[in-house]
Write a structure and sequence with these properties.
Elements lengths: L1 H7 L8 H26 L3 H25 L2 H24 L5 H28 L4 H8 L3 E3 L7 E3 L6 H10 L10 H18 L2 H16 L5 H21 L1 H12 L2 H23 L27 H25 L9 H15 L10 H16 L19
Antiparallel strand pairs: 1-2
Length: 404
Amino acid sequence: MKLLLLISMAIPASFSSKFLAAKSLLLGLTVVITLWEFLNRRFLSLKQTQLTLLPLTAISVMILDYALHSNLLFFAQAQLIFLTALGTWLVVQWGDSNRLSLNQMITLAVYGNILYALIKLSLLIGTWVGWVNPSKLAIIFNIPITPLGIKGYLVRLQTPFDTPSPYLLFFVLHSQSLNLHLTRTKKYLFIGILLLNILTSFSRVLWALGLYALFTSLWISKSTPWKKVRRVCLCCIFSSFLLITLWEPIESLVALRFTSQNAIESDDTRLNQIEALYEKCLQAPFLGSGLGSYAEDCIRDPEHPFNYEVQWLAYIMQTGLLGASLAALGGWLLLRNYIRFRISQIRIALGVLVVLFLLSGWTNPYLFSLSSGILYGLFFLAERKTIDPLRDATYSSGMLHPIV
């Protein structure tokens, strides 16, 4: 599980097939081990567990073989949804069994994301100074690269693994409130690298989430009010210094992401997707058009035409109101515990973060992936970490125990 957390946050799905083969093998082994322990611990004897896992494994292999040879879009999208649910289940099960604490899981996830961030930052610097050819980089790693035209050949290199950075930044910034026991050196090192990765993603959504994490860390700080004021003043002075000394490139970046023609075209693309997907929704509003379906007039990615920036609307188009109801139920199960116990600042901040993560599916395809599933599991365990059984009268030993 430790290796899976590291690799799941460090190797994007778009990277080469050799990496993916190792990642898939590790995922399969982790699932078998976790399912074995889960069944043997709660329901079945050792022999019953063996008899249960054998046919399940055989059926899974046959389904995978059929999916690989049929090349159906249905299986491609179903795989994404399955991996998301699987990632959540694995994290929660390993937390329940006390094999890994929340502190260990978040630390491993941060290490994996930092490894990815360091590789990405090295490639960005290489393209900027001319040591790396961006076009060859895009072909080798199968990742989208956008020239920014600021100075040299600075490019925008964004993969789905930029997505966890602001959420992991939130966990690191609130490590004291969540009792994660990070040393000061580790904490500041993690914050610095994660902030750099968020900034170099040039994503407006990730920038906003990063600012939210920073804002809530000041709001929930356990320091005295004077220290809060001093911290805010220091941040303002430091930001002003950056703006004064690096005004031109910062101005170029802000203009590029918010007022340039590329930004306008990006927003227009989303509006076109909304219109096309809405028309497709009307064709089968209750049961949907099926997983893997897409709007023929608006295709974002020829290899994965079912994948859209407006992911929630695409999901409703594919699964109909029935699927939307199931998704709403899943969101409610994730959020309901935030209002079942005593309200606190950290619980409010964490609950809002989960809502923001779910809402991001209206602008970016962030909702379904193995790394997203791991984030769902971390959200679930982090919420339980904020429960104080000594103060919450509704807490009982019959409920899920808090992770230690």
